[in-house]
Design brief:
It contains 3 helices and 3 strands. By secondary structure, it is of the alpha+beta class. The longest helix is centred in the last third of the chain and has 11 residues. The protein binds zinc ion.
């Protein structure tokens, strides 16, 4: 998972495979817990990919 500010969403989309975006709640943005992966300002979005989820599903299948 990486987190980015509004300006760097497009850049982050190109950095990860099968991206999935989730907005960070306003309280968390203001708290400064999440810093943009590119510019280290407060982040507005989380980006995931499904790699870990897919592994979990595989384990359940076994
Ligand atoms: Zn940024």
């Amino acid at each position: 998972m990486i987190v980015v500010c509004k300006q760097h969403v497009n850049k982050a989309l190109k950095m990860i495979f099968l991206p999935h975006i989730q907005p960070i709640s306003k309280e968390n943005v203001l708290s400064g817990h999440f810093k943009c992966h590119v510019c280290t300002q407060n982040a507005d979005f989380k980006l995931y990919n499904f790699e870990s989820k897919r592994k979990h599903v595989t384990q359940e299948a076994i």
